[in-house]
# Entry
Amino acid sequence: MPIPAAAPARVLTVAGSDSGGGAGIQADLKTMLAFGVHGMSVLTAVTAQNSLGVRGAWDLPAEAVRAQYRAVADDIGVQAVKTGMLSSAVLVDTVAELLAGTDAPVVVDPVGVSKHGDPLLAAEALDSVRTRLLPVATVATPNLDEVAQLTGETITDEPGMRRAAAALLGLGPRWVVVKGGHLPGEPVDLLTDGDEVHWLRAPRHDNRHTHGTGCTLASAIACGLALGQDVPTAVREAKAYVTGAIAAGFPLGAGIGPVDHGWRSRG
# Structure
């Protein structure tokens, strides 16, 4: 009989579903497959969305989220967790409590709005993100809009990214990645824990099909951490993967298409 292969590293995503397949749980699981880990999921919300935007969103009950999480963590176990869409204070508090009892690195993508500008986080949930979720994060990965929501800082340049990172670290995560892709010029992200500072630069690709970039980056970081990488290495490798996925992003429907999670296997 063949000898069973050892189980791969296990990564859990706690996020919403994207019916168009470009972001959310779907993007997370595709990313995990690309990194060779075993992806698992806790569904927090169902969205009806396509390339043009979000038509509707429905949260799952907190007890359903808790039951999914416990079913996976108590039996299979996790080596890293990534969080995405947690649209209500109840869901943020529920997930933060679960994460606090889990001995694994946590990557928090504090999803505030969709690629199309649709709000995905209730205003009353912001305080729970600040006080409950960010303190349990190993790495937090906000974009500039999410930085403004969480800190009140409007970022227009790299010195502003430094100020925002300091404000975010004050909320409790061990590391932050301030994503500066929306600034003009060369895309740059700032990774810091308050002591180490890493500016991560990449070429800007002339491709509007970038749906799912935030979910994909956070999931890729979680994969690296589950595989035993330190945070700077995991973030660098995640950024390289996302940069390639953006370059290979393709059109779907009449709006913004997704990044290509399988770009490495198509090369």
The CA atoms of residues 12 and 40 lie 5 Å apart. The beta strands are 10-18, 38-50, 53-59, 80-83, 106-108, 139-140, 175-179, 188-192, 197-201.
